[in-house]
Amino acid sequence: MTSYTIEQHVQMIKLYYQNECSLVQTLRALHPFYGRRGGPSKSTLQRLVTKFETTGSVNDQPTPVRQR
Predict the structure, then answer these.
(1) Cα angle vertex 4, ends 12, 33, to 5°?
(2) Which residues form the DUF4817 domain (predicted)?
């Protein structure tokens, strides 16, 4: 499992909206950048879009740490 940078997240979101909110078209548009097997999966892209639409951000939320 690879971790994508914030710039890559932004690129994925931009392509998603440029391709009229189509996951399949977005994945096809990402092939030149990541190759056929190197890009995000459909579920990864869907989760990123959902997170962006609910929070307005593509940043990962920090994991809560229990205070001792």
Answers:
(1) 55
(2) 5-59
Confirm whether 65 is domain-assigned.
no
Report the C-alpha gap between 58 and 61 in whole angstroms. 9
Q: Measured between alpha carbons, how far is 67 from 61 in angstroms, rounded to an integer?
A: 18
Q: Please, which pLDDT band fits residue 36 given cuts at 50, 70 and 90?
A: confident
pLDDT (mean) for 8-25: 95
Domain contains 19 = yes
pTM over 0.90: no
Judge whether 39 lies within some domain: yes
Q: Per the domain annotation, does 12 fall within a domain?
A: yes
